[in-house]
Amino acid sequence: MPTSTQQPQPPRQDLNKTVELFLQYLTVQRRLSPNTVSSYGSDLRFFIAYLHKKRIKTLEKITTRQIRAFFVDSHERDISSRSNRRRLAALRGFFEFLIQQGLLAKNPTSDIDAPKFGSSLPDVLSVAEVEQLLTIPAQKTPLIQRNYAMLHLLYATGMRVSELVNLPLNSCSISSGHVRVLGKGNKERMIPFNQTAGGKIQEYLDRSRPSLLKNRPSPHLFVTNRGKAMTRNRFWQIMRELAIQGGISKKVSPHTLRHSFATHLLAGGADLRSVQLMLGHSDISTTQIYTHLDNSRLKEVHQRFHPRG
Description:
Blueprint lengths: L14 H14 L5 H20 L10 H13 L4 H20 L26 H8 L7 H16 L3 H5 L6 E2 L4 E5 L5 E5 L2 H19 L18 H14 L8 H14 L4 H8 L4 H4 L1 H17 L4
Antiparallel strand pairs: 1-2, 2-3
């Protein structure tokens, strides 16, 4: 009998199970941060939810055409190009993992280009607006002292909000004015902070943290009134409320203070490499966007005030 030349097909696989395998791989083998793994999971589950609506529930039924249709659908739902670019990166990594595991023969994203998006510059606050935001009210409850200690430290260091809310109690040295941060990829860095921020943190440690903990132990520097670490979303909500109370009309988020930190440092003459180290950017090109931001502001000032601008 003639021998068949047809290649053996990978076994049928449930989509949700393969996503869980991939997330375990990212956690155990790649040792990515919980936030990064969570982002991958959200993007992939969003894609799977779309496939289920199309009655596609197994790997072998996913085609390049369907993935293109998914991104068209995302665009029509006003999903930003940046978010779609991130989703495509998640899908590429997912399918490459499945190929390595022998669960898929070909990557259906290999012929799909990343969505284009403009180099939109991040929002920043002026120095005056930062002062408005950081001005603590006369009433100083334990929660208010905690919130403003977090704000001061965030602006003083430019750390990510996920790094801020997860800071261990022993990570902050007020005497030396440094905080030890464990960033993306479990990379540790030391960031200096000023005396003002140090004073707010010390006041919080002396007066507010014991009141919030009520004799309960906690390894976290900043705690809720339940003695737990704060979530990123809750701190975002707090910042939004404090910005409104401070009379700031701009949309303010933890990223806004991080962007403001970098922009103000560079505008004041700091070198790009130092800012990169403090922000925890692995690639200096990521930090360079703040030089573009500063240049755009200089151009705006020039056009506004120069007699021939």
